[in-house]
Amino acid sequence: MKLSRSDFPAGFLFGAATAAYQIEGSSFGGAGSTHWDTFAKGPGNVVRAEDGAIACDHYHRMDADLDLLKDAGMDAYRFSTSWARVLPEGRGQVNQEGLDFYDRLVDGCLDRGLKPFQTLYHWEMPSALADLGGWTNPDVADWMADYAEVITNRIGDRVHSIATINESWCVAYLSHFLGHHAPGLRDIRAAARAMHHVNKAHGRTMTRLRDLGMKNCGIVLNFEATEAATDSAADTRAAATQDATHNRWFIEAITKGTYPAEALVGFGPHLPQGWQDDMAEISQPIDFLGVNYYTRGLVAADPDATWPATKPVTGPLSKTQMGWEVYPEGLQRTLTRMARDYVGDLPMFVTENGMAWPDEVGTDDDVRIDFIDRHMQAMQAAITSGANLQGFFYWSLLDNYEWAFGYEKRFGLVHVDFDTLDRTPKASYHALKSAIAPRKNDV
Ligand code: IFM
């Protein structure tokens, strides 16, 4: 790789990210059912109806997986804690086994010199709360804050940072308007409510974390580089609408206490009454912003469609196994835009960036190595132009459960054989390890 640790500011953190449902194995250790367990059983929702029951069996292989991070010379590990592992019914009875697992995980990180970056919600809503409407129910804000308190009372003394939610757009829009993820709704009223309640839950949980004395609290949002397919006025308007629903809705609520007009056109009539009263809590200060970035979104107007009347356009750039264009410039633009328009000098982390490729053991991994290298160059350029970027987490440490795509899309630095569950580091793992090896002055 062209860049190495010495091309980044002193103290810049390199790590890898995972998420509970995608790796742990939800059938182990007394975890409760979640909406992903049941969504996967719905016809046509997930490739081969695969679920996270076993996943990478990280629940039993945690030590070996943490060793992989340490052996790569990483500084930090971003993981999520599963709400239903901690509280199988979402509220009430605590699963001590679940708390013990996360206790061992955090200690395992610290023993290996890895800073634990925790995310509280990475998409698995406990089924008992999904029955009550999940993200469409305003009470979700208090349910989530209560869960945050239970897990924080156990591991909050040792985690380095806490993100409330991973990728609010996916939690709300992708799952309640586009129907691609659990709970699989395509309903504007449900979507508008989820779009607001996810922010409300972030705010309520921040309040609770502050009450518990927690520092380094923030949120992880996913951004795309939205571009109009042509210069026409209609496509330009379509791009502005998509930018508002995908990129601006959450960050504007959190940093300014407002929602973009282009998105309120569609969602406004369906928002819960009195939503304005929640904006002060939603826009309380955060300590960091996590930026997840994968690709650009090329968009055109679709005059025959209902609001937002947009349609995705396939671009000409090279694509990953997901069909996503490789577009590192978009990462640089996103980071500089965040610093300029929203967060100023607030610390930012690239909390996810990576690519899927149909790798098998022994195949070369040049495409992923080049992908990482080019995105590292984009991060470096953003830092040079003033973004206070303090770390980078590759998505993902392991090949894992890629939601509606089942186990087919391989994002890992480490190959997982889903029959034997054997782990084999890929060439990109070794390339990243060499690139982030300690600088001469640090050893
Ligand atoms: O696997 C997901 C992850 O759970 C959230 N961010 C995007 C990744 C790749 O699709």
The helix-and-strand class reads alpha/beta
Are any ligands bound, and if so which?
5-hydroxymethyl-3,4-dihydroxypiperidine
Cross-sheet strand order for the largest sheet: 1-2-3-4-5-6-8-9
Q: Tell how many strands the DSSP assignment holds.
A: 11
Using the alpha-carbon principal axes, give the shape: globular
The fraction of residues in strands falls at 15-25%
Oligomer: single chain
Largest sheet: 8 strands, parallel, barrel
Q: Indicate the CATH class.
A: Alpha Beta
N-to-C SSE series?
A: EHHHEHHEHHEHHEHHHEEHEHEEEH
Q: What is the first-to-last residue Cα distance?
A: 21 Å
Indicate the radius of gyration in whole angstroms: 20 Å
- Please identify, by name, the CATH architecture: Alpha-Beta Barrel
Mean pLDDT: 98
- Going by CATH, the homologous superfamily would be Glycosidases
Helical content stands at 25-40%
Number of helical runs?
15
In the CATH hierarchy, the third-tier topology is known as TIM Barrel
Describe the structure.
The protein has 443 residues and is α/β, with parallel strands linked by helices. The protein has one domain: Alpha-Beta Barrel (TIM Barrel), CATH 3.20.20. Helix content is 40%, strand content 16%. It contains 15 helices and 11 strands. It has helices at 20-23, 35-39, 58-71, 83-86, 96-111, 127-130, 140-155, 168-176, 188-211, 233-256, 261-267, 279-282, 328-343, 366-384, 427-435, and strands at 13-17, 76-80, 115-121, 161-166, 217-228, 288-301, 310-312, 348-353, 389-395, 414-416, 423-425. The strands form 2 sheets. Strands 1-2-3-4-5-6-8-9 form an 8-stranded parallel beta barrel, surrounded by 6 helices. A two-stranded antiparallel ribbon has the order 10-11. α3 packs parallel to α5 and α13 packs parallel to α14 (366-384). The longest helix has 24 residues, at 188-211. The structure holds 5-hydroxymethyl-3,4-dihydroxypiperidine (IFM). 5-hydroxymethyl-3,4-dihydroxypiperidine binds at residues 19, 22, 167, 292, 352, 395, 402, 411. The site of 5-hydroxymethyl-3,4-dihydroxypiperidine (IFM) has 8 residues, from loops. Substrate binds at residues 22, 122, 166, 294, 395, 402-403. It holds the Pfam family Glyco_hydro_1. It catalyses: Hydrolysis of terminal, non-reducing beta-D-glucosyl residues with release of beta-D-glucose.
